[in-house]
Amino acid sequence: MKHFRQYIVPTSQEDAVSIRRAVGARGLFIAGGTTVVPRAARTVDVLIDVTHLGLNGIEFQESWVKMGATTRLADLLTPEIQASFPVLYEAVSQCATPLIRNMATLGGSLATVFLPSDVAVALLALDAQVEVLTEAGVQRLALGDLLRSGWLNPNWLLRSLSVKKQKPTRRSAFLKFGRTSVDIALVNVGASFNLDESGRVDLRIAIGQTSSLPTLEEFNGIGESDLTQSSIDRIASEVSKRLQGKSDFRASGEYRKHLSKVLVARALARMAGVDGYEG
Amino acid sequence: MAMKVSLTINGESYAIDCRAGETLLEVLRRLGFKSVKRGCDTGNCGACTILLDNRPVASCIMLAAQAEGYNITTLEGLSASGEISHLQEAFINNGAPQCGFCTPGMLLVAKALLDTKPRPSRQDIRQALAGNICRCSGYVKIVDAIADASKKVEK
Predict the structure, then answer these.
(1) Residue B108: closest C-alpha in chain A
(2) Shortest CB distance from A7 goes to which of B20, B127, B132?
(3) In what order do the strands lie in the sheet with B49-52?
(4) Residue of B17, B61, B107, B113 best to disrupt the A interface, most CBs of A under 10 A
(5) In order along chain B (155 residues), what is the average pLDDT of each group of 10 residues?
(6) B125: nearest CA in chain A?
(7) Cβ contacts (< 8 Å) between B37 and chain A: which residues?
(8) Is the pTM above the cut of 0.90?
(9) Cβ–Cβ < 8 Å for B59, B74
C-alpha cells in the first residue's frame, strides 16, 4: 500500500491544470507511474492521471516530429525514430528495462521527481521544444532554455515534445556508463553533429548525472576536417573540466568527470567518423 | 480514500473497492491471483509481471486505479481452459522453473515476445527478459525453454 489518498482522472487538460493549482504541492501528475508510485515524496497524496487527455502518439509534421507527452517509451522504438534520431532511439532502448519502458512515458521521463533521465539528455542534444499548458495558456519553450531557468514548473501540464526533422547531414549519438545496462547511469551523454553547406559543424553535447540537472555545451562553426582525434580529445577535456562533478554513493565527482571525458570523445568520434577510437 | 475500480482480468470483469494507494499487485493477490509475486516492490525484479493489453509491465509500481480500461493477463489466464500452454510445457521439459518464484513473470514475458515475434533469436529472448531476475541464476534453461516453445506452433 502506498501513501496516496486520492486518485483523480480529470476530463480535460485545463481540468488537470486547475486541479493541480487547487491542491498545490500535495498533488502530482501521474502518467506511467514508474517513478511516481515507488518514489513520490510522502507529502504527495493526490495523484492526477494525465493518460486520458489525448496526449498520446507520434506525429510526423512537415518540418517537425511531435511526440505526445504520454507516449510510452516502448512506442518510441520505431524504425522511423531510429533512422531520424539515433540519439533518442539509443537512449530509450538503453533506458531501464522492457517492463518499465512499456509503462513509462516520454513526458514522465522529463517531468517529475527524478531527473537522471537518459531521455532528457537525448532530447537536449536534439534541441527539442516542449509544449506545456499553464494557467496562462499553451506555451512552447526550448528545452535548453528550461535548463537555464531551473527546469519544468510542477504546475505545468506537459503536452508534447517536438524535434526538428533532421537533414541527412545531421548525426547524433548516445552513450551511457553504468554497472549494468539496467542501472541508473553514472554518466550519460547525448550529442548531435550538424554539418552545414559550407562544411562547418555545430556540436551540441548534453551530459547527465554530473550535477542535479544535465549540462549542455555547444561548439559552433568547427571545420569538418578539423575534427581529428586530437581536437576531439581537446573538446572532451574542455567539457569535462567545466562539469560540476557531483559525488554520491554511486560514484565520485572525479570519476564522473573522467567518464564524461571518455564518453564525450567516443560520441564525437562516432559522429565524425574517426575510426577505431577507444578514448 | 476508498474508490471503485473496474478491472478486466483474464477476460472477466471485476468491480472492486480499493484504496487510492493500493498497487495492482496488491489487488490482484487479494482477488486470488497468487501467481503474481511480490519480489523487490520497486519494479526492478519482474516477479510481479502481468500483461497489460498484451505488454509485460511491473504490477508493483502501478496503482490498481491506473489499470482501469486495460486487459490484464496473469499467469492463471494462460491455462484458463484447465490445461497448461505449450510454453509452460516447454518450461517443465527444460527444467526452467528451478525455485519457481520468477517463473510466472518469465512465462508472461515469453508469451508477449512469442505473440509479437514467433521466431525470436536467443539475443531477442535475452533482451526481452532483461527486466526479469532469476535469483537461482540459471538463465540458460529459461532461454532454452522459450527457444524450444518458439519451434512448436500452438495447435
Answers:
(1) A99
(2) B20
(3) B12-19, B2-9, B71-73, B49-52, B55-58
(4) B61
(5) 94 97 98 97 96 98 97 95 94 95 98 97 96 92 97 65
(6) A98
(7) none
(8) yes
(9) no
**How do strand A6-8 and strand A46-49 relate by DSSP bridges?**
parallel
3-state secondary structure of B114: helix
Interface contacts A/B by beta carbons within 8 Å: 84
Q: Which residues of A touch B127 (CB under 8 A)?
A: 98
Per-residue three-class SS string for chain A: CCCCCEEECCCCHHHHHHHHHHHHHHEEEECCCCCHHHHCCCCCCEEEECCCCCCCCEEECCCEEEEECCCEHHHHCCHHHHHHCHHHHHHHHCCCCHHHHCCCECCHHHHCCCCCCHHHHHHHHCCCEEEEEECCEEEEEEHHHHHHCCCCCCCCEEEEEEEECCCCCEEEEEEEECCCCCCCCCEEEEEEEEECCCCEEEEEEEEECCCCCCEEEEEEEEEHHHCCHHHHHHHHHHHHHHCCCCCCCCCCHHHHHHHHHHHHHHHHHHHHCCCCCCC
Output the pLDDT for position A254. Answer: 96
Q: What is the ipTM of this complex?
A: 0.95
Rg (CA), chain A: 19
Cα B43 to Cα B38, B70, B154: the distances in Å are: 10, 19, 31
What is the Cα gyration radius of chain B?
A: 15
Cell numbers found for residue A96: 531501464
